[in-house]
Amino acid sequence: MSSRLLAIVLGIALAVSVGINLFAATAAVTALSGQRQIERALDQRRTDQFRPSTRELLDSLDPEVRRTVRRGLRDAGLAARPDFQAARQARAEAVEAAQVEPFDRSRVEALLTQSREAEARGRARLEGDALALMETLEPEDRRIIAAILAGRARGGERRDREPRQERTTQP
């Protein structure tokens, strides 16, 4: 083999080796940074306050207490429904008003304020009724139900679904 041919072959081998090493180094860095991101996400999930769904909370109660609590929560929800409907209606009107020319900031602002106030009334009604219900419970049952004060559970019902039909049997 001539020295010129040997130099070309060695140059190609060196270029291939450098390319493979760069590829391996990039893959290693990507894998390590991806691993760190996954670990951070898992740590964040562990530290987040996770609340089981209301159904899961109620399932841990005695059947008689469960019926009473479900009935109370259902009644509270029905009582607060008009406030939440008013909040959704005012927000929808605000969105519609924001798209109209000429733009009327004060009207949109007033509708958004109406929406927030109606939602706050509904939430206050729900929370007040839940507290009244909790007063009637034994301490252990109250500890279980107290988690509903933390707000919505992850994985709750989606808002874009059709409303559930009324059940004909008592739970």
Task: Summarize the structure in words.
This protein has helices spanning 3-47, 54-59, 63-98, 105-135, 139-145. The protein is an all-alpha fold. The longest helix has 45 residues, at 3-47. The protein is elongated.
Descriptors:
mainly alpha, 171 residues, single chain, 5 helices
Q: SSE string, helix = H, strand = E?
A: HHHHH
Mean pLDDT score, rounded? 82
The parts where pLDDT drops under 50 for at least 5 residues are 153-171
Roughly what percent helix?
A: over 70%
Strand content: under 5%
Shape: elongated
Head-to-tail CA distance between termini: 89 Å
Coarse structural class: mainly alpha
The main β sheet shows up as:
none
Report Rg.
30 Å
What is the total tally of β strands?
Answer: 0
Number of helical segments?
Answer: 5
Quick overview:
The chain is mainly alpha-helical and 171 residues long. The chain has five helices and no strands.
Task: Describe the secondary structure blueprint for this structure.
Blueprint (H helix, E strand, L loop, with lengths): L2 H45 L6 H6 L3 H36 L6 H31 L3 H7 L26
